[in-house]
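Entry:
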Amino acid sequence: MTDDRMMRRFSGHSHAGAHETTPVLELDGALVTVSIDDDGTLWTCDLLGGECAKRDLELDAAGPEDDWYFENMWDEDDPDEDERPRLEADAYEIASALRVAHLDGRPVVVTGGGRFDLSHPDLEMTSGAVRVWDLRTGRKVGTTLTGHALGVASLTTVASDQGLIAVSSCEAGTLLAWDLTHGGKRIAEIEGDHNGGMGAGLVDGRPVAVTGGGNGFLQAWDLLTGVQIGKNLTGGAESVWAITITEVNGRMMVVAGDDSRALRRWDLTTQEPIGAPMTGHTDGIQTLGTATVAGRAIVVTGSDDGTTRVWDLASGRQIGDPFTDHRLQMVTETAGTPVAVTASEDGIHV
C-alpha cells in the first residue's frame, strides 16, 4: 500500500450521521461511500467522480413486526388491531452502526439502531434493532431484527457458505447473529463482553466472531454453535473496541486495538498472545482493517490521535510514516487493489 492518494471532497452532502465510520461498496461499476444522515437520508458518493446521490429510507416500514409487540406491549385485553399503539421510527436512532454488503446479488445497507431505537412512552425499556435496506431504492428488505437490550455498538456482515450473516453486539454485551439469506433467521445468541466491541470473519469456512469491550479480555465464538472457541484471550488493555480476524502465513490471528493506544495479536488456535504490543499511536485505536499487499499481510489502524498507520502483521512493525490528520474509515479493494478509506475535515480520501 503506497501513499498514492485519490482525494475527494464531496459536495451537496451534510453527512450528519450518528454512525462513526463510512463503509464503501461497489455499485453499478463505481466505488461509492455509503452514509445515512440524521434525518434518514441515504447517501452514496462516487469515490472517483465525487458525485453524490440521495434517497430517503422507507421509515414507515422500519417498525418491528407484531411478534415484538405481543412480547413487549400487547396482550389479549388490548383493543382492536387498528387501535393498538405502534412505534414511529426515529430516523436519528436507526443508523448508529452501518455496514454494506451484497444480499442475493443486490447491494444492501445493514443498520444497527441506537439504544432509543425501539422506545415508547409506555415502555420502560431501550433497544436497538438491525435492519436491511436496498441501497438503490432505500426500501426496507425483510423483517426488523430485534433482541438487543440496549443500542447496537458493533455491527458487521460475513459472507459464508450458509449465506450472508449479520452479526451485531449491543452495549449490554449480547451478540446476535442473523442469517439474512434465509429471511433473517437468528442463528446465535451469545452473552459477550460489556460495551459490545466485536469483529467477525470466516475461519476454515465457518463464521466466527470475537467479542471485547470493557472487561480486559477477548472471546472467540463459533456462530453456528454459539460455543466459545478455547479460552479467553488475555494480556490486553481493559477497553478494546476495534477487532478483526485475519490469516497471516497460514495462521488465523485475532488483531485488536484498544484504549491503551496499542495494537495486539493473538493466535486463534492457541489463544496465546503473539509478540509485543505494536505501539505508535498517541490515543486510543478506534478503527482497523486488514489487507494483503504484495504477499504481505498488513493492518491499517485509525486513532483518535488523528493519524492512520500501516503495520506488518507478521513482524509487528509499522510500515512507513503515518497519514496525519486522517481517521481510517475502512479498508477495501478497487480493481483488485487494496485501498484505505479515511476521513478528515476536508472530506473523504482514498
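The longest helix spans residues 66-72.
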